[in-house]
Amino acid sequence: MQAKELNELIDIYTSAMNEVNRRVNILMNEQVHQELTSDQFATLRYVQKKQPCTSSDIAHEFAIGKSAVTAQINRMVERGLIDRQRDEEDRRIVYLSLTPTGEETMAEGTQRLYEVLGEILSEFSEQEIERFVQSLEKLVSILRKH
Amino acid sequence: MQAKELNELIDIYTSAMNEVNRRVNILMNEQVHQELTSDQFATLRYVQKKQPCTSSDIAHEFAIGKSAVTAQINRMVERGLIDRQRDEEDRRIVYLSLTPTGEETMAEGTQRLYEVLGEILSEFSEQEIERFVQSLEKLVSILRKH
DNA sequence: GTGAATAGTTTCATTATTGAACTATATTAA
DNA sequence: TTAATATAGTTCAATAATGAAACTATTCAC
C-alpha cells in the first residue's frame, strides 16, 4: 500500500474510532449505567468477573496507577457498591467484591448493556460481527507486543 | 443468532474495545504526543483540520459541553498552542487557530502518529484494514441514528 | 425597540489521574 | 535472626476533564 493511502486510512480509522467511543459512551451513560460513570461501570464489571479481585489487578487491567484505583474504589465503597476485605494470610492484600447493592446494580446494567448493544449489532450480519471482533482481537494482540 | 452467543460476542467486543482504547492511549502518550493529553491532541487535530473552528464546533464534535471546551482551550492558549480571534462581523464568535508552535507540535505529532499506527497496521492485509474500517464506519452511522 | 436566541465564559462541584511519600506487611539473604 | 528489600495499598497535592447553572455580550426576529 502506498504511504499516502495508508495515512488516509489512518485518518479515517482514528476519527471513526473516536466517534464510536464517544457515541458508545453517550449511549452507555444514557441507557446502560445512568447512576455510574463509564469508568465505574467498567471497574465493577471487572471486579464482578475477576472475583477475587485486588486493587493491583484493577491497576494492571486498566493500566492506571494504584492511587487512582484507591480513589475510585473509595467512591464506590462510600456508595455501598463495593466491599473491602483484608486477606487474613497476607495482611497487605485487600480483596474487593460487589455488595448485594453492587450486584443488583450490575445485573441491571449488564442486562441493559446486552439489550442496547444487541440492538445495534442486530444490524450487522453474524459473519460481519465475527470478522470485526476477530480484527479487534488481532489488534489487541499486536498492541500487546508493543 | 442465539441470545447467549450474542451476549458472549458483546462481552468479547466490549473487553477487546476497552483494551484497544487503553493500549492505543498508552502508545499515543508514549510515542505520539508526550507533551499533550489525548484530549488535547484530538482537539488540536480537529482545530487544524476544521479551520476556521469555534468552541461550539468542538463541543458538538466531541459531544461535550461548551464550558468543558472553554476550560480545555484556556489551558492550550496559556501554553501557546492556540490563538483566539474574535469575528469582526459577529462579535459573539471566537475563532480558534493553531499558533506556529501549535502547528509545529502537530506536524511532529501527526508524523509520529502515522509512523506508529502505520507500523501496527502493516501487520494487517489491505483488505482486512478496509473491511475493518468499513465496519467501524457502519457502526458510526448506526450509532448516529440512536 | 424589546424579547428571544446564540456564542462564549465563569464558577462550582465531582471524577479521574499521576507521582511521590508513606504505612504495614512479607520475603530474602547475610 | 535480623537487616535490607519488595510488595500492597493509602494519602496527599496537583492537573485535567466534565456538567450544570448563572452570567455577559451580541445578534436576530417581530
From TrEMBL, chains A, B:
InterPro entries: ArsR-like_HTH, HTH_MarR-typ, MarR/SlyA-like, WH-like_DNA-bd_sf, WH_DNA-bd_sf. Pfam families: MarR. Coiled coil: none annotated. The keyword Aminoacyl-tRNA synthetase does not apply. GO terms for molecular function: DNA binding; DNA-binding transcription factor activity. GO terms for biological process: response to stress. Residues 3-141 form the HTH marR-type domain. Keywords: DNA-binding. The keyword Phosphoprotein does not apply. PANTHER family: HTH-TYPE TRANSCRIPTIONAL REPRESSOR YETL (PTHR33164:SF43), TRANSCRIPTIONAL REGULATOR, MARR FAMILY (PTHR33164). This is DNA-binding transcriptional regulator, MarR family. It comes from Sediminibacillus albus.
